[in-house]
């Protein structure tokens, strides 16, 4: 079996403390999915996660993963398995609750902030899963986020860029309502219309449109709503999220969970996130 100590570390590697936060979930998953032959696997689960975080931070293609990390086939296998059975979100949600509680808040929020971001799709992304944002002139996909007041992700949806913000807002409200019964209010910008407000009433969430000050000019952060813009900026530290490279929207959503899980693990262990500015 290949061990982390057999190679030089990358800046994206999990520290012992950060690995300890997610190891119980991975170990439990592994115990529930034994190999038919009884084989334990040629690679440490920690190295599989390290490879995913390396790809998240650098944006490299599968076949360009360094040779001292597990091969692309092995990493893909676990990435897709964890995407499809929700293990990636389980890890993310457990870390989020720990961060909130460490900040003196309840495990789940009562208020979320919604926003969307249109991203260019990379070459090779299936055309049937992409579209063109008519307003922003962006061909690709639309990523919708629901975050709490700490800037922690509560829900993420990825749709074609051609859909209206209303569709993304409705999908986000449905996801938030399905995942938690504590959220009672959502703040949105003026891009969301009455359809989102009406849908919020159906799922028990009061949707408030935060109006822009007509006297303001340029970029002016809006109270509470600015946190979702901050999250969009933080995700740009992960080059895999700068453009949508994924063939399936579900994979794009999974990439967000891994990126934000990495951030929260660093928050819980008081370690900084290396940047690639100036690189």
TrEMBL record:
<feature type="domain" description="Insertion element IS402-like">
    <location>
        <begin position="14"/>
        <end position="92"/>
    </location>
</feature>
<dbReference type="Pfam" id="PF13340">
    <property type="entry name" value="DUF4096"/>
</dbReference>
<dbReference type="Pfam" id="PF01609">
    <property type="entry name" value="DDE_Tnp_1"/>
</dbReference>
<protein>
    <submittedName>
        <fullName>DDE transposase</fullName>
    </submittedName>
</protein>
<dbReference type="InterPro" id="IPR025161">
    <property type="entry name" value="IS402-like_dom"/>
</dbReference>
<dbReference type="GO" id="GO:0003677">
    <property type="term" value="F:DNA binding"/>
</dbReference>
<dbReference type="GO" id="GO:0004803">
    <property type="term" value="F:transposase activity"/>
</dbReference>
<dbReference type="InterPro" id="IPR002559">
    <property type="entry name" value="Transposase_11"/>
</dbReference>
<feature type="domain" description="Transposase IS4-like">
    <location>
        <begin position="108"/>
        <end position="202"/>
    </location>
</feature>
<dbReference type="GO" id="GO:0006313">
    <property type="term" value="P:DNA transposition"/>
</dbReference>
